Amino acid sequence: MNFQKDIQIKTESGVKGKGLPAALWALTISAFGIGTTEFVIVGLLPTVAGDLGISIPSAGLLVSLYAIGVAIGAPILTALTGKVPRKMLLISIMMLFVIGNGLASIAPGFITLVMARILTGFAHGVYFSIGSTIAASLVPEEKRATAISIMFAGLTLAIVTGVPLGTFIGQHFGWRATFIGVSILGIIGLIASMLLVPKNLKSDQSASLKSLPKVFGNRRMIFAFLMTAMGYGGTFVVFTYLSPILQEITGFQESTVTFILLIYGIAIALGNLLGGKTANKNPLKALLWMFAAQGLVLLAFYFTAGNQVLSIITLFLLGGLSFATVPGLQLLVVQIAEKELPGTEDVASGINIAAFNIGIAVGSYTGGLIVTSSLGLASTPWIGALFLAATVLITLYSIRLSKNQK
Q1: Bridge partner list, 14
Q2: How confident is the model at residue 142 (pLDDT cuts 50, 70, 90)?
Q3: pTM for this one?
Q4: Phi and psi (nearest 5°) for 363?
């Protein structure tokens, strides 16, 4: 009883207790489920393609069209729901997430499955746009960064454990079983949100459609979004088709791919942590070197994909570098908004989440075109490296713009 009473007194200005509030774990659980459903499809592409009688590039649309759903949901739906009470919106999002994954598990065909993925993508976009704001509102000022990192730990944990486990379930019990499992995670997150998240969270009145033109009218912001989209796009030219690459080119068995995805996930978690620390002082400078290194590793993977030992080493480096840029990109967008467009921080962050997912959509679609062309599956790494070369040039120009602003 005292525990419940303690939860209810939390407001947007902080929390009375010394520790972190239990509501944060509700956000983390939900982030884990949402992260799992986004990335687990990568390990299931051959399974889904075989069961539905479609090509692997067609199955790859389940990645790109989901990302488009997120890209729409993040800036637009977040702005439209700016006045909805935060807890009510959070619960509604998780209900939509559960429904979307439930529909995916019973989808009779490919088109229905695509529609279910897009619906789930809407939920994803809004959730990660408002999740940071909610997490920050639960704690005092000095603990806000910690609170946000705890929420995003759910996403990292999904890549480390949720994706390999979901892939294993899909390979042994069918891909529909994976979506049922993710729906159950969503229900747990929904119940946790209902019980633990306080009711008196302040709605973010600044998140409105009127903020969008201001953000899109800022040159530095546009180039930051381009860095996000191109950098992430280069990764997903390869990551979307990683399971077929490992099986058809590297020669691993299907069961071994699950283990490799676990290694890749661990690298992502380490890279995300180290990337955040590296980008704290000067995100642009750190991003330049990380993008350059990522491009070189992608190019190296073109040559090492045929060797089982070297491919695992290369993928570990690639996993670390591909997600090491995420904290720096988010920090850069917030810094630009704070300095040049005060009051648009949340909308700018939402657009950057959309940019990540536009990159995923473009990258996975490009990968599909490469796979079906005369270049073939083996060419996806060097095509991805071209994306990163363009990202390095955009970053150099962004550094020049930032110097001109001083």
Answers
A1: 11
A2: low
A3: 0.76
A4: -65, -45
